[in-house]
Amino acid sequence: MGGVHPEENKISTQAVIEPFPVPEKVVVLMNQHLGAPATPIVNKGDKVKVGQLIAEAKAFMCANIHSPVSGTVSKIDVCKDPFGVSKPAIYIDVEGDEWMETIDRTPDIKRECTLTPQEIVAKLKDMGIVGLGGATFPAHIKYNVPEGKKAEYLIINAVECEPYLTSDHRVMMEHAEEICIGVSILRKALGVPNAYIGIENNKPEPIAVMKAMASKFEGIIVEPLKVRYPQGAEKQLINAITGRRVPSGKLPIDVGCVVSNVGTTFAVYEAIQKNKPLIENILTVTGKKIPSQHNYQVRIGISYGDIIKHSIGELPATTGKVISGGPMMGKAIYNLDGPTVKGAASVLVIDESEAIRDKESNCIRCGKCVSACPMGLEPYYFSGLVRNERFAEAKDRNILDCIECGCCFFSCPANKPLLDEIRMGKNKVRAMMAAQKK
Question: Could you tell me where in the chain the CATH 3.40.50.11540 domains are found?
C-alpha cells in the first residue's frame, strides 16, 4: 500500500479566496501544459483583451493560451521560468482591464448545459482547459475517450493531500454548486452514470459542504477517504474508490476511469457555462514564518516576486526556500521574476530551519523507502543504478512508474536524496528512449 503521514500544516484553510490585483505587466509562457508549446498568433504592438486567444495549440498534445490581461503586446521572446529554464513567451504591458464581450462576468450561476458531449470537448479545447492537479494534461484529450476504450468512472480529485496547500479546500467551500455543475457537465461528456468526489477525512468542512450540494444533483457521490499521503495521486485514488489498479505503463482510461482535479472541474464550469478561458487559478500563499496566509485568484503570467511583495512584503530573513507546490512534490523557485502558469498551486515560504537537509549517510538497506513507496518500487535500488549510470536497467525496473511523491526521501533515515536521483534517472531514461526512436 505504501504512503506516509507528513505534518499537514493546513494553516491557510480559513483564508477566503481574494482576487489578486492586476499587475503592470505579465509574461505568458507558451508551454504551461503537458506537451508542445502553443504557437503565438499575435505580434508586437497588438492590442489584446482579457480572454482573447493569443496562442494556438498546433500540436496534438497542446493547449490554447488566452491573454490574462488587456493591453499591448510589448514583445515575443524567451523568458526564464521560475526554475531558470528558458521558454518562449508573450510579454504584455497592462492597460486597464477590458474583457472579451463573450465572457459572462455576472455572479449568476448558470445551471443548464445544452451542449452535446462532442461540443463540450471542443469547447474545453477552445478555452485552453488543462488539468490543475499537477500534470496540466490538456482536458480535451482526456475527455475524448479513444476508440476501443470505455469510461465507467468519473473521479473528482479533491484529496489535496500535499501539506500546506489549501486552494482546493477553499474552492469547495466557496464554489460547491459550480463544482457540481462542472461534474455534471463532465459526466455528460463521458456518458458515465456516476461521479465520485474523493476527499480525505481530515477535511470535514469541505466534506459536509460538498455532500449537502451533491445531494441536489443526480449521480454525484462524495467519498471520504483515509488520510494517507499520497492519497491524491491518480493511481492511488482510483484504487481507493474503485478497487481497480492501473497496470504499469497504462493510463486510467485503460481501467475505465477518468480523473479530474476539483479545481479543473471548477474551470470546466466557467469555460462551458461562462465562456471563460483558463486565464487564472487559485493559488495558496503560506508558510509558518510569514505574517499572513492567503488564497488568491491569480491571473497567469504574474511573477512570483509580485505575489510575494503584495501578500507578505519582504521575505523573512530566515527564509530557506520558496517552493512552487507543496513540500513533498513541489520545486524550489530559482527565479522569483519567473511568471505563474495555469498549473501554479502555491507560494510556500519555508524557513531555513526546515529547508536545510540533514547530512546524508550510507544506506543501511532498512527497506523503509520500499515500504513507503505507493507504487511498490525499490527507490534505494534506483539510487544505485542512477549513480552508476545504468539507465537501461533502471528502465527495465520500471523507474518510469515512479510518481515522484517523495515518500522515499521522507522515510529515509540516511537522508539520501532518493527523489532527486530518481527524477534525474527518469529524465535520462526518457532521453535514452527518444534517441533510440531516431
Answer: 117-274
Query: What is the fold, at CATH topology level, of the domain defined by 117-274?
Result: Rossmann fold (3.40.50)
C-alpha grid cell, residue 288:
509558518
How far apart, in whole angstroms, are the C-alpha atoms of residue 235 and residue 375?
A: 9
Q: Mean pLDDT score of the chain, rounded to an integer?
A: 96
Q: What is the pLDDT of residue 432?
A: 94
- Of 287, 30, 270, 250, the closest CA to residue 146 belongs to 250
What's the grid cell of residue 234? 491518480
Angle between helices 167-174 and 204-214 (to 10 degrees): 40
Give the DSSP per-residue string, 2-44.
--B------TTTT--EEEPPP-SEEEEES--SSSSPPEE---T
What local confidence, expressed as pLDDT, does residue 135 receive? Answer: 83
**CA 186 to CA 360: how far, in whole Å?**
47
Give the span between the Cα atoms of 430 and 437, in whole angstroms.
11
d(CA 1, CA 375): 8
3-state secondary structure at position 368: helix
Is pTM beyond 0.85? Reply is yes
Residue ranges, the chain, pLDDT below 50? none
Pair 370, 379: CB distance under 8 Å: yes
Q: What residues does 4 pair with on adjacent strands?
A: 229
